């Protein structure tokens, strides 16, 4: 890995590569934070807040902005960024120049189910929290079990409710925001 010196004047933009919701933020704070720490989570949420109103891409900002906003030294921000990269929530791209430029790609956390079934994340979380706290988290994310044995499924299908016109659609859409997760 290349060793690059970041200066406060170096710029960055944030690109949202996903669709984030409130559940994702809970997963980040409840499941990821015990592994990566509150500083990394704070950086993740700050980068999300840096996105402009359409939540796709931010304006150019400086790392000094992050230092001021988060009240952290640049070295602490770099360590937090590396934790986000390592856990799969962030990808970083670099372009050298008079003022260096960075692009931070934000990714969704894995679902709670995927997190608890992940061979590494699950074990690290358990080791960091201990059995009692770990079990509390599992119970928080469990879906209540309802016995539907005596019930009949009367759900209508799409074709029962909507009429469609046969034929091929001419509309092709690329680069639509999707629930994207960076692979660990």
Report on this model:
With 184 residues, the chain is of the alpha+beta class. Helix content is 43%, strand content 11%. The chain has eight helices and four strands. The chain has helices at residues 22-36, 38-50, 63-70, 74-87, 112-117, 121-129, 131-141, 158-161, and strands at 11-16, 61-62, 90-95, 101-106. Helix 1 (22-36) packs antiparallel against helix 2 (38-50) and helix 2 (38-50) crosses helix 4 (74-87). The longest helix is centred in the first third of the chain and has 15 residues, at 22-36. The model has no long low-confidence stretch (mean pLDDT 88).
Strand and helix layout:
Layout: E1 11-16, H1 22-36, H2 38-50, E2 61-62, H3 63-70, H4 74-87, E3 90-95, E4 101-106, H5 112-117, H6 121-129, H7 131-141, H8 158-161
Parallel strand pairs: 1-4
Antiparallel strand pairs: 1-2, 3-4
Helix pairs in contact: 1-2, 1-6, 2-4, 6-7
What is the H/E order?
EHHEHHEEHHHH
What ranges have pLDDT less than 50 throughout 5 or more consecutive residues?
none
Largest sheet: 4 strands, mixed
Helical content class: 40-55%
Find the count of extended strands (DSSP E, 2+ residues). 4
Strand order in the sheet with the most strands: 2-1-4-3
Shape: flat
By DSSP (H or I, 4+ residues per run), the number of helices equals 8
User: How does the helix and strand content classify structurally?
Assistant: alpha+beta
Strand content: 5-15%
Tell me, rounded to a whole number, the average pLDDT.
88
């Amino acid at each position: 890995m290349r060793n690059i010196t970041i200066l406060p004047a170096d710029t960055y933009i944030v690109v949202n590569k996903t669709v984030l919701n409130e559940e994702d933020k809970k997963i980040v704070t409840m499941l990821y934070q015990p592994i990566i720490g509150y500083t990394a989570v704070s950086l993740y949420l700050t980068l999300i807040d840096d996105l402009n109103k359409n939540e796709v891409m931010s304006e150019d900002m400086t790392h000094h902005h992050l230092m001021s906003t988060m009240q952290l030294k640049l070295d602490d921000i770099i360590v937090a960024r590396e934790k986000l990269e390592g856990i799969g929530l962030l990808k970083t791209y670099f372009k050298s120049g008079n003022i260096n430029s960075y692009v931070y790609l934000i990714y969704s956390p894995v679902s709670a189910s995927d997190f608890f079934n992940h061979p590494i994340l699950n074990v690290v979380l358990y080791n960091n929290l201990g059995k009692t706290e770990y079990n509390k988290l599992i119970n928080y994310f469990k879906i209540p079990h309802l016995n539907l044995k005596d019930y009949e499924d009367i759900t209508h299908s799409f074709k029962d409710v909507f009429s469609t016109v046969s034929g091929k659609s001419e509309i092709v859409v690329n680069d639509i925001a999707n629930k994207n997760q960076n692979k660990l």
